[in-house]
């Protein structure tokens, strides 16, 4: 317990946590870009005569997805272990006098870990859904091509089938663009969240000292909540309109 009782031990843990958080931030940005670009090569090469290039591309992306998933999970596990060590340190008898400050720092690192974990699982789920949809549409396209080449009698039915398939592809592309915009917005908001938390903590400290500033902050928070409701309503309406357009 001698190492745990020293302030150097706490600083070492904080340094490890910040390093892991920085690595996770970079990994998650790359992971998000990989997931949002999964279907792009296949869409961009629809006019090519060879079917092998898109398949190789998607196969490479699948391998990259699996590799990056393992790396991110390992980083999350390491960061969780560091947070656990920090929690043990705050419960040590020698750290009782500084417990409030230590717990504040620990909670901030826990919030960051929770945000990264949530973002990873959400991005991973989106990727798996996109891959499943791409596989399904690829199977449909293959069935259409087989049907078209094997029968010359049902040309009208084949034409209708192809038009329906094209409509599904256009709807799928529109949904992918919407998901890409949403994920890019989330990346930007995540990068600003840490800075905003620090600023808000300092502003709250000033607000507790000066009532006038506190009233101003309450008005700002009220307007921010109002703007959030307006933005949420706009996003909801746009999403509904996109879904109506996609399925009609």
In short:
By secondary structure, the chain is mostly helical. The chain is flat, with a radius of gyration of 25 Å.
CA distance, first residue to last residue: 67 Å
What's the total helix number?
A: 6
Would you identify the regions where 5 or more consecutive residues have pLDDT less than 50?
Answer: 1-5, 40-56
Order of helices and strands: HHHHHH
Main sheet, how many strands, which sense, barrel? none
Decide which structural class fits the backbone.
mainly alpha
- Percentage of residues assigned to helices: over 70%
Beta strands, count: 0
Oligomer description: single chain
pLDDT average, as an integer?
A: 76
Q: What percentage of amino acids are in beta strands?
A: under 5%
* Overall geometry: flat
Radius of gyration: 25 Å
General description of the model:
This protein is mainly α and 248 residues long. It has six helices and no strands. The protein has helices at 7-36, 40-44, 52-90, 99-150, 155-209, 211-246. α1 runs parallel beside α4 and α5 (155-209) runs antiparallel to α6 (211-246). Component of several multiprotein Golgi SNARE complexes. Residues 50-59 have a biased composition (Polar residues). This is Golgi SNAP receptor complex member 1. The chain crosses the membrane at residues 229-247. Belongs to the GOSR1 family.
């Amino acid at each position: 317990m001698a190492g745990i009782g020293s302030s150097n031990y706490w600083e070492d843990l904080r340094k490890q946590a910040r390093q892991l958080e920085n690595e996770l931030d970079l990994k998650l940005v790359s992971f998000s870009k990989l997931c949002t670009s999964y279907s792009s090569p296949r869409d961009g090469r629809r006019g090519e005569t060879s079917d092998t290039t898109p398949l190789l591309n998607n196969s490479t992306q699948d391998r990259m997805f699996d590799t990056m998933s393992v790396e991110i999970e390992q980083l999350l596990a390491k960061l969780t272990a560091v947070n656990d060590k920090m929690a043990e340190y705050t419960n040590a008898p020698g750290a009782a006098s500084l417990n409030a400050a230590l717990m504040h720092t620990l909670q901030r690192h826990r919030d960051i870990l929770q945000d990264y974990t949530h973002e990873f699982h959400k991005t991973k789920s989106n990727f798996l859904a996109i891959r499943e949809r791409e596989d399904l549409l690829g199977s449909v396209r293959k069935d259409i091509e087989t049907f078209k080449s094997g029968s010359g009698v049902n040309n009208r039915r084949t034409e209708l089938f192809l038009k329906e398939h094209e409509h599904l592809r256009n709807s799928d592309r529109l949904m992918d663009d919407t998901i890409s915009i949403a994920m890019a917005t989330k990346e930007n908001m995540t990068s600003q969240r840490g800075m905003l938390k620090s600023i808000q903590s300092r502003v709250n400290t000033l607000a507790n000292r000066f009532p006038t500033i506190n009233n101003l902050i309450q008005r700002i928070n009220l307007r921010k909540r109002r703007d959030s409701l307006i933005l949420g309503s706009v996003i909801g309406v746009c999403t509904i309109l996109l879904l109506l357009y996609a399925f009609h």
